[in-house]
Amino acid sequence: MIRVNFLFCIVLLFAMTLPMLVLYTTSTLGPLLSSDLHFDSSLLGYLIMSSFGLAAVLSLWAGAIVDYLGSRYTLLMLFSSVGLAFTLIATVESFYSLLVAAAICGIAQALANPVTNLLIAQQVPPEQKAGIVGLKQAGVQLAALIAGLMLPSIALQYGWRVAFGIVVPITIFFCLSVSFVTPKKHIRAQARLKLLPPNSLLQRLMIIQFLIGTSLSAFVTYLPTFAIQQNMALPLADTLIAVFGAVGMISRIVLTPMGAKLKDESLLLFMLAAIAAVSMAITMNATPDSHWQLWAGAIGVGLTAVATNAIAMSMLVRDPAFGPVTFSSSLVSVAFFAGFALGPPLFACVSIYFENLFASWNTLIGALILACVMAIVLAFARRHKVEHRRV
């Protein structure tokens, strides 16, 4: 068993950070991309769809792939695909090439949760599991912090291609670090790749993650654009994503171990989805003369909806009732990434059809309300399962 040390935690953290950078860089650097490559900013949502759409499809087999290849080769594939994607993004000359480059990040996104959860399940003591899950899931929001604070300043001074290209040497460093934090030998859990149907508890958790993913991705993708429409300056609009990322990191690190102390984290998922819905309702009421709603929304959603995926992953690691950890992680990722892929184009299509953004915001709020309902359903199902075991 590899000791839980600093490098182990850093590799887990950036295994979650780097694949998600494409989402937040598309959000913060999107106006520069669309201006330089001459495409409409409404098409930014399709970049997210290409990446997370592929991630959703690959996630069907991600758990089986991790079991088959082992953590070492899977992590190498993860970091290498991010490096390739950002190399291509930094050199593309058209929107369609950008679409292909963004899609390659879907490979890393699909593998991130199953491989990191496997390492935690195998190598972290039970009393530390929830804390380490929260720490590594905070990597997703670290991506938002980097994309909101560091990359825009680099892009404005040296160009957006340099901002994307600077990620490549970081991926090379982590490729070299993999051998120090993974087992030398891997015992395959199964001889061949195969798919299994999710059990009833896992199905309910997948629905919750799909609905929250739909709302969250659209919110993150279009928050800076919406802020600019309310006469907020571009650097300040990008800072919204940085604030969102910072509070999101805090929420994942704090709420994940807190949720592990509860009898059932399902009720916590309910509360977080409900508060996120209220936060989005506040955001949609921002005006050119009043921007505090934008800050309140970024903080509110960052503190709540962001933490739900980390809590869900902690539930999978700690409770075998959801199924084998790599298998259940991959299917929850399927649902979450499918929501992420659907959210931005759905937001754009609804706004175009109704010719206003209020309908789009209400659609996101409706998805979160449905997630609240499903969280209650999951809580009753888990309680019933526990009572049935006692009998």
UniProtKB/TrEMBL annotation:
The keyword Membrane applies. SUPFAM superfamilies: MFS general substrate transporter. It comes from the Bacteria. GO terms for molecular function: transmembrane transporter activity. Keywords: Cell membrane, Membrane, Transmembrane, Transmembrane helix. It holds the Pfam family MFS_1. Residues 5-389 form the Major facilitator superfamily (MFS) profile domain. InterPro entries: MFS, MFS_dom, MFS_Efflux_Transporters, MFS_trans_sf. It is found in: Cell membrane. The chain crosses the membrane at residues 7-24, 44-66, 73-92, 98-121, 133-156, 162-181, 201-220, 232-255, 267-286, 292-317, 329-354, 360-381. One of its GO terms (cellular component) is plasma membrane. It is a multi-pass membrane protein. This is MFS transporter.
